[in-house]
Design a protein that fits this description.
2 strands; mainly alpha; single chain; two-stranded parallel sheet
């Protein structure tokens, strides 16, 4: 990544221009290394598809972290406190529709299953 940019370029101008010869993912890694925000306001490049792809990946990671810490981890901790060694979690979106009766939930292969609605 020599010659791509220096951190001073960002701190002087607030913008990093990515040349066409450098992949957006390489630039993203360099920004992470130098603790430079990687978003549409700080990065300018000819490869718009690559830029949007990297930004989308960041959004997906953030969304997963939210699910992990707000929904999944608390349920896993509760299962561990009960002494369970396994925990199978399925998160459905608001517009997802699953038809089952509370007495006859879909088979999970386990004798213990729990449904939660929030």
């Amino acid at each position: 990544m020599k010659g791509l940019f220096t951190p001073n370029d960002f701190f002087k101008n607030g913008i990093i221009k990515c040349p066409p010869s450098v992949s957006v993912s390489e630039l993203h890694e360099a920004c992470d290394y130098f603790l430079i925000p990687f978003d549409a306001s700080t990065i300018k490049c000819h490869n718009l598809r690559g830029l949007l792809h990297e930004i989308s990946n960041e959004g997906a990671k953030e969304q997963f972290e939210n699910f992990l810490y707000e929904k999944i981890l608390p349920e896993m901790v509760n299962a561990a406190k009960r002494g369970d060694r396994e925990c199978h979690i399925v998160i459905l979106l608001d517009d997802d529709n699953v038809d089952w009766d509370e007495e006859y939930p879909p088979q999970t292969g386990e004798e213990y299953s729990q449904s939660m609605c929030q």
